[in-house]
Specification:
Number of strands: 14
Structural class: alpha+beta
CATH class of the largest domain: Alpha Beta
Number of helices: 10
Order of helices and strands: HHHEEHEHEHEEHEEEEHEHEEHE
Number of domains: 3
Shape: elongated
CATH topology of the largest domain: D-Maltodextrin-Binding Protein, domain 2
Distance between the termini: 39 Å
CATH architecture of the largest domain: 3-Layer(aba) Sandwich
Strand content: 15-25%
Oligomer: single chain
Helix content: 25-40%
């Protein structure tokens, strides 16, 4: 067997071990023995002069070098696989498992309603949708794409903006009848007058600042309250719907409640928060990922590369 073929085979063994997190599982998937997989990874580590895995009697995980090597090797293998399918005519349309991570608000009100059309257009794609507000690791967690609010996390990712979502401050008529309507941002600082319903960011453990436009400039207010919600920002909306307090949220969430809410502080409205579609910075996207990216962003969307 020639050297290049041997190297490719060893890299494939390493990638399968990293993907499944186990030499035994990789051996079973590839029809090898665990010892053969271990020897193959060992030879690869010797050739590279680095440790790819941290191994104990109970667990196995990628090192930082191993994670970077896996990301690049997995992309290369996917590119070779797609090239073979394209050249033999096997990949006439997108197919296979597509794993998506999205935050709860965007998933429930924007993404999920659109996926029916996407699935009808690409029936051979299988969807695995994770709805979570935590950041993910594309390599460790195995996702193809993620949707996130705000500036993308500090890693090598392609970011395609999906939209600038308008936010406003809302309350029910019953709440405003009891507490009055705030006339300025300053009114929100008086806890005796108003109850704010902030969402605590899982990444920082601090409330998401409320944003406003004042004299042409965006200003922030860190909401202080005796009530706060973590993990699920929709909980803030539901509390506001029960007339507990004021909430700042996206207009397309409030629109779904058929005039149950009243927008307040309109002279200070006009701010937006950006949502991005993120995926690893690979030179070649699989056909299934490209299908979703094009479907969600349209052909005229701009992309930005964020690097460490």
């Amino acid at each position: 067997m020639d050297t290049h073929a041997t190297q490719l085979s060893t890299i494939a063994v390493f990638c399968k071990s990293a993907e499944l997190g186990s030499f035994t599982a990789a051996a079973h998937a590839m029809g090898l023995t665990p010892a053969a997989v271990s020897r193959g990874v060992g030879r690869l580590e010797d050739r590279l002069g680095i440790k790819l895995f941290r191994r104990t009697t109970r667990s196995m995980s990628l090192t930082d070098d191993g994670r970077m090597y896996f990301e690049q090797c997995r992309a290369a293998i996917a590119q070779i696989d797609d090239a073979e399918k394209n050249i033999t005519g096997q990949q006439t349309e997108p197919r296979g498992l597509l794993r998506i991570s999205a935050p709860s608000t965007y998933a429930h009100y924007r993404l999920l309603p659109r996926l029916t059309d996407f699935k009808s257009r690409y029936p051979l794609i299988e969807l695995d949708i994770n709805i979570s507000n935590r950041n993910i690791d594309f390599v460790d967690d195995g996702y193809d794409v993620a949707i996130r609010l705000g500036t993308p996390p500090d890693s090598r990712l392609i970011a395609r903006k999906l939209e600038d979502a308008r936010v406003g401050v809302y309350a029910t008529p019953a709440y405003l009848k009891r507490h009055g309507t705030p006339a300025s941002v300053t009114d929100l600082k008086d806890k005796r007058a108003h109850t704010l319903l902030p969402f605590v960011l899982p990444s920082t453990g601090k409330p998401l600042p409320w944003i406003f436009m004042q004299d042409g400039q965006q200003i922030e207010l860190v909401p202080s309250s005796t009530v706060q919600v973590s993990e699920g920002p929709i909980g803030c909306v539901l509390l506001a719907r029960s007339s507990m307090g004021l909430v700042q949220t996206f207009s397309w969430i409030v629109d779904s409640y058929n005039d149950e809410f009243v927008e307040v502080l309109k002279p200070f409205a006009g701010c937006t928060r950006p949502f991005y579609l993120l995926y690893p910075q690979n030179r070649h996207l699989s056909v299934k990922v490209r299908a979703l990216v094009d479907f969600l962003t349209q052909t005229d969307s701009r992309s930005t590369t964020y690097t460490k």
